[in-house]
Design goal:
Shape: elongated
Radius of gyration: 30 Å
Strand order of the largest sheet: 3-2-4-5-1-6-7-8-9
Distance between the termini: 53 Å
Helix content: 40-55%
Number of helices: 16
Order of helices and strands: HHHHHHHHHEHEHHHEHEHEHEEEE
Strand content: 5-15%
Structural class: alpha/beta
């Protein structure tokens, strides 16, 4: 396998200047197992740094004795698209040989060494290989690799990548919830953030997404009251106080069971869950999108102050989202500063406790509802609500109008121009 990959690397170098630089950056002469391959690679490196084209004519001029081999190399390349894979095969095979040779050397010298010296030699070999593996993981990707991935992504089918919530204006502005993204959903206490989150979660589930909802502020059966009210448009107080007639209960149950057959929502209720607890549950359920209600109630690591501790939680959630390629929606509260402002328009600086939350976020959504203390909301009545897209890492910010019906725990989109 190694020799064929080495031939393919050399052939790709002769066919493409950009790949030639990738191979020179990623390989060294010693990584080639075949003597002829080492010789040709060394000549190619020399030609490249002299500003010459690394093609068949140049290499034959440098290595006339290898003319037949060089002429065959370019013809043996299956495809340039897999050039980076050939480089990786050569690197991996070289590392395997290095480990094998190191172990053989330690075994042969064991008789003349003390057990302690042999053990130290083995540890040194392990340390060297760990450094190589770490360097491989942290080396990133080249422009040509990124280009290949981008073109492949552009040509791939659009379905089943981003999670859409079914709210037209937000799906259009945000492109849905992207894999590995963090969406911060914030509002003042009692400002409708859980209602809005439930709307997003239920709508995403209707679109076919597997939804996992971590609730720390209320038990799952109370969240189900909101889900039932939203889906059936039944007054939430009547559900809460169990004032429905037997016929209404039967109809409600029928609608919820129909929803259950098509949608998948998994609730996790814990008073104070940790990052490791969220990871464990995500690994078990494998959701398409995660909701955390809310981040301020999560278990925090030891730190000098709560501000830094919450920042560490935020950083950890971002890493988890990227690692598992799963979008996470974090609910959080806005501080009281917004109340002293004349227009009461929220800003990212109003997010309570931690600047890391806004820094780690791909999107920041702030819900602002009108004062309903003097309103009696029943029937078709509503309160005006604005949802501000304060941060949009993948597009423009914006402002969207909704009608909030807290009696049904429902946010209804109002036609809004965006862009």
């Amino acid at each position: 396998m190694s020799v064929e990959a080495e031939k393919s690397v050399l052939g790709c170098m002769m066919l493409d200047d950009a790949f030639c630089r990738e191979a020179i950056d990623g390989l060294t002469e010693e990584m080639f197992s075949h003597p002829k391959a080492r010789k040709i690679f060394a000549a190619a490196v020399t030609a490249y740094w002299q500003g010459k084209n690394v093609d068949g004519v140049t290499l034959v001029g440098l290595l006339p004795e290898e003319k037949d081999t060089l002429l065959r190399l370019a013809d043996q390349v299956p495809t340039l698209r897999h050039g980076m894979e050939y480089i990786q095969i050569v690197r991996d095979d070289w590392q395997k040989r290095t480990i094998g040779e190191g172990l053989n050397r330690i075994a042969m010298e064991a008789c003349s060494r003390t057990p302690e010296d042999s053990l130290e030699a083995l540890k040194e070999l392990i340390r060297e290989q760990e450094l190589l593996l770490r360097a491989k993981k942290e080396s990133g990707i080249s422009f040509s690799q990124a280009l290949e991935r981008f073109i492949e992504w552009m040509k791939s089918p659009k379905e089943a990548e981003n999670v859409h919530c079914g709210i037209r204006c937000l799906d259009h502005a945000m492109g849905g919830f992207l894999p590995g993204s963090i969406t911060v959903l914030c509002a003042r206490a009692g400002g409708g953030k859980t209602d809005f989150a439930v709307n997003l979660a239920v709508r995403a589930a209707k679109q076919g997404a597997r939804v996992q909802y971590f609730t720390m502020e209320m038990p799952a059966h109370q969240l189900m009251q909101r889900v039932a009210s939203f889906l059936t448009q039944t007054d939430g107080i009547r559900i809460r106080d169990r004032l429905l007639s037997p016929e209404e209960i039967e109809e409600l149950e029928l609608l919820l069971r129909r929803f259950q057959e098509k949608a998948r929502i998994h609730f996790v209720e814990e008073a104070r869950i940790s990052l490791s607890g969220i990871r464990r549950n995500m690994e078990l359920y494998r959701p398409d999108v995660v909701f955390i209600d809310h981040i301020g109630l999560m278990e925090r690591p030891a730190a000098k102050d709560s501000y830094r501790a919450l920042g560490m939680v935020s950083n950890g959630l971002k890493q988890l989202a990227l690692e598992m390629k799963t979008p996470i929606v974090e609910l959080c509260q806005l501080n009281r500063q917004i109340e002293g402002r004349k227009d009461k328009k929220p800003t990212m600086a109003d997010i309570r406790e931690s600047g890391d939350i806004e820094q780690d976020a791909d999107y920041v959504l702030a819900v602002q509802v009108e004062d309903i203390s003097e309103k009696t909301l029943s029937g078709d009545a509503w309160a005006d609500a604005d949802v501000y897209l304060l941060k949009n890492r993948h597009g423009r910010p914006g402002k969207f109008q909704f009608r909030w019906q807290p009696q049904y725990h429902t946010f209804r989109e109002v036609e809004t121009k965006y862009g």
